[in-house]
Specification:
This is RmlC-like cupin. The protein has a single domain, classed as Jelly Rolls, CATH 2.60.120.10. About 20% of the residues lie in helices and about 35% in strands.
Length: about 180
C-alpha cells in the first residue's frame, strides 16, 4: 500500500456500525416439513452479502432434490451428528460434527441424514437472497406440512437453482 493511501485510511474516523447478536434461543424458526430451519441472519445486517441459518435434520431424513446454484455459494458446518452430502457420480461424503463443506456456484449437491440420530448444521449463503427460498418453502408447507420434491423444485427455480437431473435419476435408481 502506498504511503498516501495508508495515511488516508488511518485518518478515517472509526465507524460505529453495531454488531448483531442472536441468542441460542431465538432466531426466526421455519418448518420445512420435518426439518427445522432457524434463521440467524437474513442479510438485513450485511447489505445482503451473507445470510446464515441452523438446520435440525431428524434421523432418517432425505434432504432436498439434488440441485446446483447458479448465483450463490453455500457452506455447511456440521454441529451435531452426521450429514451425508451427495455429489455427482454417486460420490458421498459423510460429514461429522466439526466437519465443514463448501458448495461453490454450479456444484451439484444435496444432503440427507440416513442415520439413527438427529443432526444439525450451520449454513451460510452468499449473497444472502437465498434465505428467502426457505421462507417461501415454510409458507407453502403450512397448508399440508409436507415438503415435496415438486414444491422444492418449484421454489428453487425462483432463486436461480436448477435440478441436477442426472443426480436425481441416479439417486432414484433410474439411469
Amino acid at each position: 500500500m502506498d504511503p498516501e493511501t495508508l495515511t488516508a485510511l488511518t485518518s478515517l474516523p472509526m465507524p460505529r456500525v453495531p454488531i448483531t447478536f442472536v441468542p441460542a434461543t431465538s432466531g426466526e424458526i421455519l418448518k420445512l416439513g420435518h426439518i427445522i430451519c432457524r434463521v440467524l441472519e437474513d442479510g438485513t445486517h450485511t447489505d445482503n452479502r451473507i445470510s446464515s441459518a441452523e438446520f435440525t435434520v431428524p434421523a432418517g431424513t432425505s434432504g432436498p432434490p439434488a440441485h446446483w446454484h447458479e448465483m450463490h455459494d453455500e457452506t455447511f458446518l456440521v454441529t451435531q451428528g452426521t450429514i451425508r452430502f451427495h455429489a455427482p457420480d454417486g460420490k458421498i461424503v459423510d460429514a461429522k460434527t466439526g466437519d465443514y463443506v463448501t458448495v461453490p456456484v454450479r456444484a451439484p449437491h444435496t444432503f440427507s441424514n440416513p442415520f439413527e440420530v438427529e443432526a444439525k448444521f450451520f449454513n451460510t449463503y452468499t449473497p444472502a437472497f437465498y434465505i428467502n427460498y426457505f421462507k417461501i418453502l415454510a409458507e407453502m408447507s403450512k397448508t399440508d406440512g409436507v415438503m415435496s420434491k415438486e414444491k422444492n423444485l418449484e421454489v428453487m427455480a425462483q432463486f436461480a437453482t436448477m435440478a441436477a437431473k442426472p443426480m436425481l435419476q441416479e439417486m432414484s435408481g433410474k439411469k
